[in-house]
Specification:
CATH superfamily of the domain at 19-169 in chain B: MetI-like
Main location (chain B): membrane
Number of helices of chain B: 8
Shape of chain B: flat
Strand content of chain C: under 5%
Transmembrane segments (chain B): 20-40, 60-77, 185-209
Chains: A alpha/beta (252), B mainly alpha (228), C mainly alpha (214)
CATH topology of chain C: MetI-like fold
InterPro entries (chain B): AA_ABC_transptr_permease_3TM (IPR010065), ArtM/GltK/GlnP/TcyL/YhdX-like (IPR043429), MetI-like (IPR000515), MetI-like_sf (IPR035906)
Oligomer: heterotrimer
Number of strands of chain B: 0
Order of helices and strands of chain B: HHHHHHHH
Family (chain B): Belongs to the binding-protein-dependent transport system permease family.
Number of helices of chain C: 9
Pfam families (chain B): BPD_transp_1 (PF00528)
Distance between the termini of chain B: 67 Å
């Protein structure tokens, strides 16, 4: 097949001390795809995302962004500009307004003029429905609003793909919907996304592929509908239905 | 009424001493910053050996009474062949003590900004230097203002100990005047009043500064999202 | 240095004993004074509260050394002549009381008003509620600040030297002015303070671990 993978992960290993959380994980992501990783806590899902942009460098394995080997490059800051990251705890800069949070990467990293950065930042805020909150500081926003600013900040950098690290896990249940809706729109607009989440409704209806992980391995991956209805492994079924019970189908 | 006359007569001398007290405070705080900041960086970003050495320094400077440090400097430096004026000896002693406390303030401020802020900055492609400069430092400075104000007031009051090694600052000027007037209470109360005005100014000035650069969510009630 | 200590250790130990005695008396009495001040500031009427606030601000805003001089050299002009140790202890208690009052006030105010309401709801009077419900919690929370204050007081009790109260510093000075080994004597004293403070810091950490209530 001629299509080149946008992101390719080969045989990823990672340990925290004596605790081996990733024991050889491989998968890839094509342009425009949305893949969702699910699995029990402590199974290394977030570690994969942190490995990808080397916030936590992997012990072993290779990761490619198109032709660049991320795991070997000396220009990691350039790679990070091309990959958006949305944090579980939002990661908004507390001393900057919503607009400032989006602008700081544009002006300090991408060297855009203040004016151009402000214009782009406002557009992105509008896209997540928060134009009127541009002057608010993080402490003045609700969790859902914070996360939408976080997404807008990632978007403004015009990344090739965005990594979502449990973007709704820190939110009260009634606030997850607004964030999932923004993510769903992004997927429909053709953004490439890799999402770690427990939101089964989102996974089932938005993901092109679902990856089920446990104990540091990928147990099963494929079409979400198929994983829900006819999983190959009994364990997959158990887990998915447990989560659906816990979190419901709701949100998106 | 004669007390008021006395104060009026003493005031020029006391104000002369006040200037020296302010100078002592200024130079001591400056030494405290110049040494305290690198110590804080060492404590946060340094390797184990460096952290250990800094911890020892801080333990020493925080354990030996300032009075003992001043006397040691006063009697010790000449033994090393260094004859320096008492003013400088006082500034060194007070400054070295303050450096240890300021180091702890800056370290605490940097650490309370939290790893998740650094992570978020790196995720945008910032270098570590840029992340520190644009993201960590602006928040850390705001967090550090109230404790730095407090430390400044402590240093200001501690300069009165320079009196014991013969620096002619506010308290010593008061002593001189008491020797001639023999009215200790009036003079000491005046001296105390001047110190009170100075500490109030230090605290007031810094809290003005604090309010001017106030950002909702940063400061005493801030410091959230430290989960990483 | 070691020689000086081994030759004159009874002198140093006596001085150290006085230093620790002065520190303990000052700190504990400071807690009593601080508690009264804090209660006066929070629960007192407008006048009391205002008065206490001003008193605390003045004490915290002026050097301990000046306070010591006022008590030792200032009061005799009004017929109050104090022994140096007593003068030192009184000024330390006042000073420490003002600082402790501020810690305690913060601690009391951090305990929710519901605690007092709950006390009233089971039929306690206001003062019973404050003494039996609020204060025990507030005092426990203030332990880290209190131990800090204690360490400060060990160091600042050395100021008693300027009025000749015979604690560690003064004993050292008297010795040095006899044998002219100022530097060596002060070095011994520095080491003694260092050891004592390291020991107290260690003890207090153990204590804090023990009394922490989740």
């Amino acid at each position: 097949m001629p299509t080149k993978h946008l992101l390719k992960i080969e045989d990823l290993h990672h340990s925290f001390g004596s605790n081996q959380v990733l024991k050889g994980v491989s998968f890839s992501l094509n342009k425009g795809e949305t893949k969702v990783i699910v699995g029990p806590s402590g199974t290394g899902k977030s570690t994969i995302l942190n490995n990808i942009i080397r916030l936590v460098p992997p012990d072993q394995g290779k990761i490619y962004l198109e032709d660049t080997e991320i795991t070997a490059t000396k220009k990691i800051n350039e790679v990070r500009q091309q990959i958006g990251f949305v944090f579980q705890d939002f990661g908004l800069f507390n001393h900057l307004t919503a607009l400032g949070n989006i602008m700081v990467g544009l002006t300090k990293v991408k060297k855009m003029t203040k004016q151009a950065a402000a214009e782009l930042a406002l557009n992105e805020l509008d896209r997540v429905g928060l134009k009127e909150f541009s002057d608010s500081y993080p402490s003045q926003l609700s969790g859902g609003q914070k996360q939408r600013v976080g997404i807008a900040r990632a978007l403004a950098m015009q990344p090739k793909l965005i990594l979502f690290d449990e973007p709704t896990s820190s939110l009260d249940p009634e606030l997850t919907g607004e964030v999932l809706k923004v993510m769903r729109n992004l997927a429909e607009d053709g953004m490439t996304m890799l999402v770690v989440t427990h939101e089964m409704g989102f996974a089932r209806s938005v993901a092109d592929e679902l990856i089920f992980m446990e104990g540091g391995h990928i147990i099963e991956q494929g079409d979400p509908e198929q994983l829900f209805t006819e999983p190959v492994h009994q364990r997959t079924r158990e887990f998915l239905f447990q989560l659906t019970d816990l979190y419901g189908e709701g949100g998106a | 009424m004669d007390n008021l006359d006395l104060i009026q007569q003493a005031l020029p001398y006391l104000l002369e001493g006040t200037v020296v007290t302010i100078e002592l405070t200024f130079w001591s705080l400056l030494i405290g910053i110049v040494i305290g900041l690198p110590l804080a960086f060492g404590q946060v970003y340094g390797n184990k050996a460096l952290k250990f050495v800094i911890a020892i320094y801080e333990r020493l400077a925080r354990s030996i009474p300032l009075l003992v440090m001043l006397l040691l400097l006063n009697y010790g430096l000449p033994r090393l062949g260094l004859r320096i004026p008492v003013f400088r000896a006082a500034v060194i002693g007070i400054g070295l003590r303050s450096a240890a406390y300021q180091s702890q303030i800056y370290r605490g401020a940097i650490q309370s900004v939290g790893g998740s802020q650094l992570k978020a900055a790196l995720s945008l492609g910032m270098s570590r230097f840029k992340a520190f400069f644009y993201i960590i430092a602006p928040q850390a400075i705001r967090i550090a203002i109230p404790p730095v104000a407090n430390e400044s007031a402590i240093v200001l009051k501690d300069t009165s100990l320079a009196f014991t090694i013969g620096v002619v600052e506010l308290l010593r000027q008061g002593e001189y005047y008491i020797a001639t007037s023999n009215k200790p209470m009036v003079i000491y109360l005046t001296v105390a009043f001047i110190y009170f005005v100075l500490t109030t100014l230090v605290n007031g000035g810094l809290s003005l500064f604090e309010r001017k650069y106030q950002i909702p969510g940063i400061g005493i009630e801030g410091g959230h999202s430290d989960a990483y | 240095m070691g020689q000086i200590f081994s030759q004159y250790y009874p002198l140093f130990l006596h001085g150290l004993g006085v230093t620790i005695f002065v520190t303990i008396i000052s700190c504990f009495s400071g807690t009593v004074l601080g508690t009264l001040l804090a209660l006066g500031k929070i629960y007192g009427n407008k006048f009391t509260s205002r008065l206490v606030t001003i008193f605390i601000a003045i004490i915290r805003g002026t050097p301990l050394l000046v306070q010591l001089f006022i008590i030792y050299y200032g009061l005799p002009g009004y017929g109050i002549r104090l022994d140096p140790i007593l003068a030192a202890i009184i000024s330390f208690i006042i000073n420490s009381g003002a600082y402790q009052a501020e810690y305690l006030r913060g601690s009391i105010q951090s305990i929710s008003a519901n605690q007092l309401k709950a006390a009233l709801s089971i039929g306690m009077t206001r003062w019973q509620g404050i003494i039996h419900i609020i204060l025990p919690q507030a005092l426990r929370r203030v332990i880290p600040a209190w131990t800090n204050e204690f360490i400060y007081m060990i160091k600042y009790s050395s100021l008693a030297y300027v009025i000749g109260a015979r604690e560690l510093m003064t004993e050292g000075k008297l010795l040095a002015s006899r044998n002219y080994q100022f530097f060596n004597v002060y070095l011994v004293i520095a080491v003694i303070y260092l050891l004592v403070i390291v020991i107290f810091v260690y003890l207090f950490r153990q204590l804090e671990k023990k009394v922490t209530i989740p």
